[in-house]
């Protein structure tokens, strides 16, 4: 593949994906140091074969923190594998508490809290006639919701979310060493707070309690290893639980308002909200994709891969596959539903997909009812330069 500027690729990867889908076999990306898996059928196949395509290293950063920053993290609890990058029995063990804690029944039970939180956020800016959507709503709603589900004290949620963001900054944003160290210290402080929170949560009916009971079963205090697993997976859940939904809230509202006909159709026919949610996820996958490591020599889409090779499985490209979706580059909430892969597939399918959908559902119901005149303040919307959680950097709305 022709080498392109990494930042430009990250801000708009779709032309690269389109060329890769049109090319026979797989395409190697120097920007990602991985083979691109871009066609819907190939993405589904890789996700269906976890034994051949390991999740170890699924979440690889763009930068390497300094040794001093690493030392700050190494001294804190929580340096253990997480569900996202585990395989086999370990993955199943990490995932079971999440499956229980994010079940359809648990998400339904959380709906009144989501509705109340969403309504309060909208009330806080409705009289202003203007809001920067990402900071005013798309970030605080899912952060508050995941904090609630984890059983965190609401007063602790903002600092915990900030520390989660700093953890992502450490591996995706180039920073001076002193800033890296400061970020690492924030993350380490969060981990210590999560240890204390987990110690109180064993008998509580929340996500943290599910993680404690699932990863440290039986009486007595968790072992050091169990404590690290609880902290790592709680921190990972906190990060994934709000950033993925933040991205979906940002891109869904952006695309609904970019074509005024789509928004007016939704206002006229709110029964299309479930279809709008699926179209938003298909059109702009909130997580662009993850890496997989090849575990044995094999052939995928005519390309020979060796043990240890890396593939980047693009959920976003699968959603634009011309062989599956008619006019895939057109955002259309009235299109005939088709199964997308934007929340993954198979054993590693996103356990929080129902929660993300519910928060977008509540949001669209609220906006259609309370702010039908909402519109974009301008056409210049810059997407964040990342292939992880794809969202506008800012999204200014008026009404």
TrEMBL record:
InterPro entries: Cyt_P450, Cyt_P450_B, Cyt_P450_CS, Cyt_P450_sf. This is Cytochrome P450. GO terms for molecular function: heme binding; iron ion binding; monooxygenase activity; oxidoreductase activity, acting on paired donors, with incorporation or reduction of molecular oxygen. Belongs to the cytochrome P450 family. It comes from the Bacteria. Keywords: Heme, Iron, Metal-binding, Monooxygenase, Oxidoreductase.
